[in-house]
C-alpha cells in the first residue's frame, strides 16, 4: 500500500442556519484530517440582515468563510426565487477553487468515497 496520502479539497455550501446546523458537524470532522482542505461558501439567508447575518455564526464556530455568494431575491415570488437560485448556481463554482467534492444540504450530501473519512461524515 502506498503511504503517500491523497490530499482532498472539499467545499461545503451552506445557505441557512438550519443547514449549517447539519453541516457543521461534518465540517468539524473533515477539518480534523490533515489530508483535507476544507472550503466553506456561505450564501442565501446567511448573508441577509433580515435573517440575522448568520454567516457570523459560522465564523464564531471557528471556520473561515472562503466565499460569500449573494442571492438577493427581491421577494418570494417564483420568478425572483428562480433568478436568485440561478445567480447562486453561477457564483458557487467561481467561489470554489476546484474541490474534490462539493457538499450542500440543499442538493443532498455528496462526497467522494475514500477510506480515510469517518463514518459519521455521511460518506459511503
List keywords for this structure.
31% helix; 4 strands; disordered C terminus; four-stranded parallel β-sheet; alpha/beta; 3 helices; 124 residues
How do you describe this structure in short?
This protein has three helices and four strands, in the order βαβαβαβ.
From the N-terminal CA to the C-terminal CA, the straight-line distance is: 21 Å
> How do the strands of the widest beta sheet line up side by side?
3-2-1-4
Share of residues in helices: 25-40%
Share of residues in strands: 15-25%
Total helix count?
3
Low-confidence stretches: 106-124
Radius of gyration, in angstroms, nearest whole number: 15 Å
Strand runs, count: 4
- Give the H and E element order: EHEHEHE
Largest sheet: 4 strands, parallel
**What form results from the Cα inertia axes?**
globular
Q: If you average the pLDDT, what whole number results?
A: 74
Structural class: alpha/beta
What does this structure look like?
The two termini are 21 Å apart. The protein is built from three helices and four strands, in the order E-H-E-H-E-H-E. The model is unreliable at 106-124 (pLDDT under 50). A four-stranded parallel sheet has the order 3-2-1-4. The chain is an alpha/beta fold and 124 residues long.
